[in-house]
Design goal:
- By secondary structure, the chain is an alpha+beta fold.
- The chain has one domain: Beta Barrel (Lipocalin).
- About 25% of the residues lie in helices and about 35% in strands.
- The protein has an 8-stranded antiparallel β-barrel with strand order 1-2-3-4-5-6-7-8.
- Helix 1 crosses helix 2.
- It is globular, with a radius of gyration of 15 Å.
- The protein starts with a helix and ends with a helix.
Length: about 160
């Protein structure tokens, strides 16, 4: 996404997309085949159940921003960047993820990226990344995300 697009659409959704979907700056990420999210018994291994130490749920870079934009990790291994456009939640980007201990692998458009989970709890998720563009934009190779309450869309289903 071009910097001008970040200014016109808001910085926070752009940071979410950089975190969730950007190809690493060195462009050496492993290409992986696109596959549908795991379902049934396979989903248990793909993503942990929702809980205090689980990625499953919705996250924002600031608690107050939960009303505007979120990152979502679902129990079936989907990963989405969401934005409320005033008329409801829109999916800006989606892919899949797998967690193995402290390693988080996110796949978007056939490109996989690694993130390190430094901590995950009932209120916060702290990730480390090696994305130079994101580090320049945020001033850090770590990002803290805050758990959001479920969206009205999620609560209705």
């Amino acid at each position: 996404m071009r910097p001008a697009a970040c200014l016109s659409t808001g910085l926070i959704p752009c940071l979410f997309l950089l975190l969730a979907c950007s190809q690493p700056a060195d462009a050496t990420a492993d290409a992986v085949s696109a596959s549908p999210p795991a379902t049934g018994p396979e989903a248990v291994d793909a993503a942990p159940a929702e809980g205090a130490g689980s990625l499953v749920g919705e996250w924002a870079v600031e608690p107050a921003l939960c009303a505007e934009s979120r990152l979502s990790f679902t129990a079936d291994g989907r990963h989405e960047a969401l934005m409320d456009d005033g008329g409801g939640w829109q999916v800006l980007a989606s892919g899949s993820y797998e967690r193995s201990g402290s390693e988080l692998r996110i796949v978007f458009q056939g490109v996989g990226q690694q993130r390190e989970i430094l901590s995950v709890g009932p209120e916060q998720l702290v990730l480390r990344h090696d994305d130079e563009a994101l580090a320049r934009a945020t001033g850090s190779d770590e990002v803290v995300l805050y758990r959001c309450p479920p969206t009205a869309d999620a609560a209705a289903s």
